[in-house]
Automatic annotation (TrEMBL):
Entry annotated with the keyword Ribonucleoprotein: yes
Uppermost EC category: hydrolase
Record-linked Gene3D superfamilies: P-loop containing nucleotide triphosphate hydrolases, Signal recognition particle SRP54, nucleotide-binding domain, Signal recognition particle, SRP54 subunit, M-domain
Protein name as catalogued: Signal recognition particle protein
EC number(s) reported in the record: 3.6.5.4
Residue intervals of the SRP54-type proteins GTP-binding domain: 268-281
Protein's UniProt keywords contain Ribonucleoprotein: yes
Length: 446
């Protein structure tokens, strides 16, 4: 998310952390840079003003200028301020104390509401181990019900619909059905319109009265920038929302929405959705988002993603194996499977501190390439996979493998080289200090 804001602020961070002494004038200049970055990211100007004033005040007030590492301390203040405008603490999903929980989703047409329901259903089932049902009550957009049914089918989540046009009746009956069938959580899709109008608001109010939801989640399109915050405020003023799902974060290159919504609408952002894939929903953590914007990595999110998809012991033993001399093609294969379970490689690398720039270079390694490599490994004998030196020593073996995989011998050679390189890279990374990582960041190819 927010590539340009991130890039600009990361430049600021690099310059600031390198400074030994700072004067008041330096702070002024720094704040001009931050202000411009935020405005360009389409953050609401009132927020920007308050933001830079707060940072300045703290930087000048706490004797930071005469302290140790003043530049780094300013960065820390900027980080905390980013975190503050996004709501400080992360706010989790609220369930009913006893019995079935109900979630109502609201949002403009095209905001990604239906897609978000699918993702949320999956998220709740996976993270909170609950049995989820959807109620299709967006009776205005003709394709909405079919779209939800298709999503539900793919996820194995039951979708309740009635083929009638009255959302109130559908919700009432759907609720009874869910209770009778002992579902833990019901998520209701409601009418979306292109713009906010009074009919829609009335219908939403009625549905809310019937449902008495534990959560009213509003989907807001991050690509709208700060306008997203105004939309959120209108919905909130009339219906009352308990949380925002910020959608299309993958397409948002600026970041204005994430940084404006909380302050303008006062609704906490609970989830960020970033892609067409069903597993691209993340709980929103202001702290982590602030770190990510400043390029300070986001190890916690990575760890969470990895642990939800991967056995920790498995990952640990893989790392150890990679750094050992017996690392072989079987390990490489296992590693690919792990990466596949985690999602795309560029996404994973985006979380690792210091790899911000290098990521672009590495992300050219795409999933197709993985598949190609897999075919080559599959053409090897069990022994060859286990002992890579067998392949290294024999050109006859290399020819045989290439033929079996339908690739050229140079493809096999490239794979051999990359195995060696990987081992070397892991060894180097484990010995790197911060300065070296920084150099790598500045010169990703070198
Ligand atoms: P609704 O009208 O609010 O129910 O919106 P939909 O769920 O139908 O989404 C509208 C469009 O946005 C569809 O083309 C979705 O595929 C797309 N979309 C939804 N969420 C995301 C997201 O997180 N990232 C991207 N890139 N596209 C999304």
């Amino acid at each position: 998310m927010a590539n340009s804001l991130s890039d600009r602020l990361q430049m600021f961070v690099r310059r600031a952390t390198g400074r030994g002494r700072l004067t008041e004038k330096d702070i002024e200049e720094m704040m001009r840079e931050v202000r411009l970055s935020l405005l360009e990211a389409d953050v609401n100007f009132k927020i920007v003003k308050e933001f830079t004033n707060n940072v300045k005040e703290q930087a000048l007030g706490e004797k930071i200028l005469s302290g140790l590492n003043p530049g780094q301390q300013v960065v820390k203040i900027v980080h905390d301020e980013l975190k503050r405008v996004m709501g400080d603490e992360s706010v989790g999903l609220i369930y009913a104390n006893t019995g079935m929980s109900t979630i109502m989703t609201i949002g403009l047409q095209g905001s990604g509401k239906t897609t978000a329901i699918g993702k949320l259903g999956l998220w709740i089932r996976k993270k909170d181990k609950k049995n989820v049902m959807f109620i299709a009550a967006d009776v205005y957009r003709p394709a909405a019900i079919d779209q939800l049914k298709t999503l539900g089918k793919g996820l194995g989540i039951h979708v309740y619909d009635e083929g009638i046009k009255d959302a109130r009746v559908i919700v009432k009956n759907g609720l009874k059905y869910a209770k009778d069938n002992q579902y833990d959580v019901v998520i209701v899709d409601t009418a979306g319109r292109l713009t906010i109008d009074s009919d829609m608001m009335q219908e939403l109010k009625d549905v809310k009265d019937i449902l008495k939801p534990n959560e009213v989640l509003l989907t807001v399109d991050a690509m709208m920038g700060q306008e997203a915050a105004n939309v959120a405020k209108s919905f909130h003023d009339q219906i009352g929302a308990t949380g925002v799902i910020l959608t299309k974060m993958d397409g948002d290159t600026r970041g204005g929405a994430a940084l404006s919504i909380r302050e303008i609408s006062n609704i906490p952002i609970k989830f960020a959705s970033s892609g067409e894939k069903m597993d691209s929903l993340e709980a929103f953590h202001p702290e982590r988002m602030a770190s990510r914007i400043l390029g300070m990595g986001d190890m916690l999110t990575l760890i969470e993603e990895v642990t939800s998809n991967i056995d920790e012991d498995e990952a640990k033993s893989m790392m150890e194996k990679m750094m050992s001399d017996s690392y072989n093609y079987l390990d490489l294969q296992k590693q690919f499977k792990m990466i596949k379970r985690m999602g795309s490689i560029s996404k994973i690398l985006g979380f690792i501190p210091g790899l911000g720039k290098m990521k672009e270079a590495i992300s050219q390694v795409d999933d197709k390439q993985f598949d190609r490599v897999n075919v080559i490994i599959q053409s090897m004998t069990e022994e060859e996979r286990k002992y890579p030196e067998l392949i290294d020593k024999s050109s006859r073996r290399r020819e045989r493998v290439a033929k079996g995989a339908g690739v050229s011998v140079s493809d096999v050679n490239r794979l051999r080289e990359s195995l060696v390189q990987q081992k070397q890279m892991m060894k180097q990374m484990s010995q790197m200090d911060e300065k070296q990582i920084e150099r790598l960041q500045k010169n990703p190819q070198g």
